[in-house]
Amino acid sequence: MSYMTAMLSSYYNTKSVLLCLGITAMVCLSVTIFSFQTKFDFTSCQGVLFVLMMVLFFSGIVMAIVLPYKYVPWLHVVYAILGAIIFTMFLAFDTQLLMGNRRYAMSPEEYIFGALNIYLDIVYVFSFFLQLFGTQRE
Questions:
Q1: 12: phi then psi, degrees, rounded to nearest 5
Q2: Contact criterion met (CB below 8 Å) for 93 and 45
Q3: What is the DSSP letter of 136?
Q4: Which pLDDT band holds residue 138 (cuts at 50, 70, 90)?
Q5: Is 5 left (phi over 0), alpha (psi -120 to 50) or beta?
Q6: 97/116 Cα distance (integer angstroms)
Q7: CA dist 134 to 13, 17, 80, 127, Å?
Q8: Using one digit for the tens of pLDDT, what is the confidence trace for 6-54?
Q9: Which residues contact 80 (CB under 8 A, 6 or more apart)?
């Protein structure tokens, strides 16, 4: 996953990659702090996250069919915004799941799985921000 993200980032301008890295770091830090101190339980929102993920999945399929025939820039932006929001919500969900003391929690033996989930959420948030704010290298 790191190699894929590095190869993806090599197609973008260095300044835009650093900008997206900073935005991702700020978003992840704020979501993590929010997840630690809030009384709202994100672990009980599994159905909502599933529905949002299916919306992202089917809109990605529609984009794969529509975009080769005619490029629609606003559709690409909407997809990137939707993906960034969904995976930010998954980051809050996985953080609370790993933390415990909520409706659902991971056992202490599953800490590697939880760390991998959080890592994947951060990488996906970064890639969607790169789609949104990144400028192509010339």
A1: -110, 160
A2: yes
A3: B
A4: low
A5: alpha
A6: 13
A7: 7, 7, 11, 9
A8: 999 999 999 999 999 999 999 999 999 998 888 888 888 889 999 999 9
A9: 128, 129, 131, 132
